[in-house]
Amino acid sequence: MEVYNVTANAETFTCNAYLVVGDTTTLVDAGAWEGVVDAVRDHVDDVDRVVLTHQHPDHVAQLDAVCDAFDPDCYAYGENDRRTHAIEDGDRVVIGDDAFDVVYTPGHAGDHVSFVSEDTLFSGDVVVHDDGAFDYGSFGRTDRPGQSRERLIQSIDDLLERLPDGVEHMYSGHGEEFHGDVRDVVETALGRAQKREPKYPDEQ
């Protein structure tokens, strides 16, 4: 599976938007960088679908631009004018060449989902490999209105239950991609979240 972070060179705050090239060429999140359409076109001429992990602005600000440029199907848990397919926990969605299970993982966002295949995890912001707070196992912030550390903890636990042992590629919404023992990274993130220590100095 060919995966490209098409927002890697962004000069503004954005999520990682991943272009997955295959029989069903897919963009996982659209990002907030105005150059994302051109970056996608550096690799492919067309995009079959967009799948959204959640709809915070850094993940969807360029969704209209992407949809206008490529007219893809759009898969999302939460309502969106651009959504063509509603997804729910337990659904299966093809990304690239592989089928991924949809796992509902709220806490950081009420509409957050992750996508899990036999060897790959697109985790959005529920779990990340590294960020400004922690390395080797971090998680989305939960200090803003509508967010919940307790629900995030449950979501990470749910994700672990649904994560095959052979998963060795993790593409998260922020930080670096990870290749190796993904389960260990997710378990590390869960342990840190369960300690209920603030992720950021001003977090309550």
From TrEMBL:
Residue ranges that the Swiss-Prot or TrEMBL entry lists as coiled coil: none
CDD domains: metallo-hydrolase-like_MBL-fold
A Pfam family the protein falls into: Lactamase_B
InterPro entries: MBL_Glyoxalase_II, Metallo-B-lactamas, RibonucZ/Hydroxyglut_hydro
Molecular functions per Gene Ontology: hydrolase activity; metal ion binding
Domain Metallo-beta-lactamase: 14-174
Alphabetically ordered keywords of this record: Hydrolase, Metal-binding, Zinc
Entry cofactors: Zn(2+)
EC number: 3.-.-.-
PANTHER family linked: HYDROXYACYLGLUTATHIONE HYDROLASE GLOC (PTHR46233)
Protein's UniProt name: MBL fold metallo-hydrolase
Annotated organism of origin: Halomarina rubra
